[in-house]
């Protein structure tokens, strides 16, 4: 599946998780849990292949999930590291969600789900990511001006701007936010001009 298709399929799962976390008043706890899950799956990509493999029985996969995200020793050993206990035991809240993904053979969506889940949490408090593609590197003052302009235009409280240099733009820049493209590059203006000439 393409990244766009993966994001589309992952969206309803992320929204379901978001609603559960919001209704329980535990958005930050769920964010922390998902950060642990992302770290584990990012460090061991073969896990996804394992969970998607029908050769292994579901009870084996459930056991792997439990061993990955529940520190069983900490439940009985009070002398264990408190940081380690806190980090892993909060993942008990995520176990049922991971099991649903496993049973539906959707574990390959875990990373896009985590990304979308974080986006939904950010949007709730007025934070949004924006991606800027510029023909030249922007100065810090230019970045601040662009962020201010985007905040005024979109109404978000905070914009996290990520800037990438793209020499093919022939001057100017493009900004992607909320799946919308703001194109003020020379290439974009030329393309628009050609479209008008052809119509």
TrEMBL record:
Membrane topology summary: Peripheral membrane protein
GO cellular component, one term: proton-transporting ATP synthase complex
SUPFAM superfamilies xref list: N-terminal domain of the delta subunit of the F1F0-ATP synthase
Keywords assigned by UniProt, alphabetized: ATP synthesis, CF(1), Chloroplast, Hydrogen ion transport, Ion transport, Membrane, Plastid, Thylakoid, Transport
Domain of life (superkingdom): Eukaryota
One annotated GO molecular function: proton-transporting ATP synthase activity, rotational mechanism
Quaternary structure, from the entry: F-type ATPases have 2 components, F(1) - the catalytic core - and F(0) - the membrane proton channel. F(1) has five subunits: alpha(3), beta(3), gamma(1), delta(1), epsilon(1). CF(0) has four main subunits: a(1), b(1), b'(1) and c(10-14). The alpha and beta chains form an alternating ring which encloses part of the gamma chain. F(1) is attached to F(0) by a central stalk formed by the gamma and epsilon chains, while a peripheral stalk is formed by the delta, b and b' chains.
Role summary: F(1)F(0) ATP synthase produces ATP from ADP in the presence of a proton or sodium gradient. F-type ATPases consist of two structural domains, F(1) containing the extramembraneous catalytic core and F(0) containing the membrane proton channel, linked together by a central stalk and a peripheral stalk. During catalysis, ATP synthesis in the catalytic domain of F(1) is coupled via a rotary mechanism of the central stalk subunits to proton translocation. This protein is part of the stalk that links CF(0) to CF(1). It either transmits conformational changes from CF(0) to CF(1) or is implicated in proton conduction.
Name the UniProt record assigns to this protein: ATP synthase subunit delta, chloroplastic
Highest classification ranks of the organism: Eukaryota, Sar, Stramenopiles, Ochrophyta, Dictyochophyceae
Gene: atpD
